[in-house]
Every structure is written in structure tokens, then in C-alpha cells.
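Sequence only, no structure available. Ideas?
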Amino acid sequence: MKTDIEIAREAKPKRIEEIASSVGISDEYLEHYGKFKGKVNLSINDEKLNDQDNGKLILVTAISPTPAGEGKTTTSVGLVDGLSHIGKKAMICLREPSLGPCFGMKGGAAGGGYAQVIPMTDINLHFTGDFHAIGAAHNLLSALVDNHIHWSNDLDIDPRRITWKRVVDMNDRSLREITCGLGGTGNGIPRQSGFDITVASEIMAVFCLASDADDLKKRIGNIVIGYSRSNEPIRAKQLKADGALSALLQDAFQPNLVQTLENNPAFIHGGPFANIAHGCNSVVATKTALKLADYVVTEAGFGADLGAEKFFDIKCRKSGLKPDAVVLVATTKALKMHGGVKKEDLGSENVDAVIGGCKNLERHVKNIRKFGVPVIVGINDYITDTENEHAAIIDFCKKMGVACKISSHWEKGGEGAADLAKEVAKLADSGTSEFKTLYDDQMSLWDKTEYVAQNIYGASEIIADKKVRNQFKKLEDDGFGDYPICMAKTQYSFSTDPLLMGAPSGHDVPIKEVRLSAGAEFIVVVCGDIMTMPGLPRIPAAENIDVDENGLIQGLF
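Reply:
I predicted one. C-alpha cells follow.
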């Protein structure tokens, strides 16, 4: 089998105006970024699309991730190609990849095999410059904060209570904790700070939740950068930062249009962290796609306990989106790992381990059903899978009353996903979705957190010391009590212990701290050690990336 980059390079892409035309985007709304990339002007919604009916919204999520991989993005792309293969008008909405994972350990996020979005190298590297714009906007606000303190500090900002860091789109552990303002009075006030990776920026979360340009500016203005000496929240609009930041984001806010290997349209726009933020592509891209296609496939980061829950309780709650169906992705390898098999032994058939690992699958199915959305299980087919292992998964799903289809999109593209696509379209068209969020806005922040922990993670209770409990109360006293909860925990387990696989129950969920995202309008509840600035592995992927004698990039995956 050829590598992903070799497959992508051999593709025969259509010019971006042809892709746009296939879903009714005329040239007046398309900004060209070369031959095969474009941005769609959001004025198309008010001027052309608002009166059109929405298509069906399909969420792709997954079981708890393992080192064996699940292929959620690959399945999402394969599903769109599969829907098109059976004659449906479909689009996909994905997040943009971050440079950090590309040069680190995870690699890119453009799918794989014969289920990819292209141009693969562009998407995984600088793309259309959105992340650079988001990083610049974030760091402009950082500079304005320090500049205000340096000159007058009329807002009486307490340097010890500044919560707004700086960002860079690279894995760099040396920047996690820094001291800035050193070198004398002309260089500002010395204080402790740090860097996050760009995808962890609240600007990124705001960017992806804003409904239009006016909402984007309002949310930016509402960002809390820290507190005054009297412990009152200080917002970006008090620094008169909202206008300039919005100007930096004006072009980036337009959704990016590209295509799959099979020339089906794809919006790739925004990319918030899936643990510290909500892990979904932009609302504006999703809503625009729903006006352009009959079926829109999107995905949420990590497993369903993090990704799908936040998609439902944050993105859908804030945007009014109502999903029609959910595809839960699993692989035999991942199920075997949840069943106790070591990574080096995954190549051997082990039906008992597959059945044991299905407890993780079962928990996710039950959780999704709590939101009132019908679900189907999609098995991402590997060449090492056996018929007996597939049969065991299908039989387990049958006993749960959920359909299960094997999909070979990685090897065969849309044709290999046709069976899954037929069942997904049937489910989305069934009208059986009765979407609801998990909890009400009026619940206390503590109760919301405990409700998620008990009903999604299978925990017995949440625990926190007095300092953290006081943080919950402070946020409610400051008027943020009606915000949804954005849980930040390990993606590898329903618990906060990444080594506790399967479907653990009765565990405690310790709350380490609580963070306010006033612009994004959610409360981040940190459970355990969560890195907002990753580090590179011992052997980073960057060591294998190069440009050959023909000017072609090699080594991306």
C-alpha cells in the first residue's frame, strides 16, 4: 500500500471553482487561494442561502482512543465519499490541523489511505493562514495587556492575576512557564506567564463558536484576561482590543473550501483543542454546509465521552444545531486493547478480547442515546481484521439494538464505505432524532460537572478541595453560572486515569482547577494533568520530513 502522501500526490483534483459550483457557490462568493483552495464569503448566507432548507447533520465520533488508532477523520472522509458514491449530495466539515502534532507524534489530520482531503500537504502545513491570524490576534491581546500595565494601568490590573498567556502553533515544552518583562523599566513589569499552543487559545474557541462577524467581535470583547486588584474580571473590550482583533480575523473567519480524493466538497475551518476546548470545526462552516448539501458529515475530537458530549452540550447548545444521526467509529485493534491485549499482540486474532473491549463501545452507545440522537457503529476495516472478529462486533451490536457496518474506505475509498453510507443516510432520514442536551443551563456549575461525570463517565462523584469549590462559587457570583461545562481530562479513559481502559465505573473524578472562557461562554473544568502546551516526543515526526530534489515535501502523514 502506498503512503498517504503518495496517494494524495497521485490524486486528480478539480479546480476549486468546479468544486464550489458543484454545491451552488458562484464565483462572486469564492476567494481563490491557488488552484485547489478557496475561501467562501459568508455573505452568501444572507444573500442566497438563508431561505434554503437545512440538510441532515451527521456527527462522526469514536470509542475511547488507543495507541492502535481509530481513524475517525478517515472514516468521516470515507463516509462523505460513500454518500456521494450512492448518489447523495454530501459535504464534510472538519477541523484544521495544528503544526504541533504534524511535527510531533500524531501527524496531520487530513484522513488517510484512499479517504483523504486534498491538497494534503497544504492542509497539514500553513493552509490559508488561519492559525497564523488566530495566533496574531491572541498575541496582540497579550501585548495590549502588558502595554496597559506599563503605561498607566488605569484598569488596576493585578499582574499576579493575569490569566491570558501567549500562544505559538508548535509543541515547545520550554515555553510552558516563562518570566516576561525582564531587563529594566523599559521592558514592562516582570511577571510569571507562559505559552499555550494556538489551538488551545480561547480566540480559537471563540472563532469556532461565533455565528457571524458581529458575534465574533462581541465574544472577543467579552474575553476575561485576568482580574483587578479588587478581584473584578477585566475584559478585552475594556482594553479596546475587540476591534483590532476582529480586523486580524476578518479573512480567516471565511470557511476554507477544499475537496476529497474523489472530488467531493469539504469545509476545513478552525481547530480548537478537544480536551481544553470543545474540539469541533466552526459553526459558520457547519451552518453554511447545511444550506449547500443534503448530508453534512462533521466530527468531534477524541472519544464520544469528550468529543460528542461537547459537540452536543456546547456547540449545538450555543448554535441551535440539531444532529440527525451519529456514527460511532471503532476498530478491532482498539477494541482488543480495551479488552486487555498489548499493542505488540494486536495482529493476532482474539475474539474474546474484542468482546471484552466492546464494553467500551457499549458505554459510548448508551451515552449517545441519552442525547436523543440515533447511532450506528462503523467499523473501520483493517487488513489484519478477521471475519470472526467482525462477526463478534456485529453480534454484540445486534444485542444492543444498534446497526453495525464494516467500512473499507481506507483501502477502497467511497466504494468501500457504500454500505455504511446507505445505513447512515437511512438513519438520518428516519426522523427519529429527538436531540436534547444533557443538562439545563439553570443547574449550578458544580451540579453540571457532577452530572457529566456520573452520566457520561460512570463516576460515583466528583471531588475537589475548598479552593476549587470557591472557584465554582466565584464564577457564579460573577454571573457565569449559566455557562455549559467543558470537561478537560484524559481522552484515553472514562476515568481520569489514562491506563484504566474499558468501561470503568464507580471511580472518583478529581477537579484540579476551574478556568473561565467568557468569550467562548463555557467553563473549563480541569480533571488531572492537562497540557495546553504539548512537548515533542523523543523522536519527533519532524526528523522524517524533508523536501526532495524536485521540491516535493516528503514524510508528512
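The two ends are 14 Å apart (CA to CA).
Hope that gets you unstuck.
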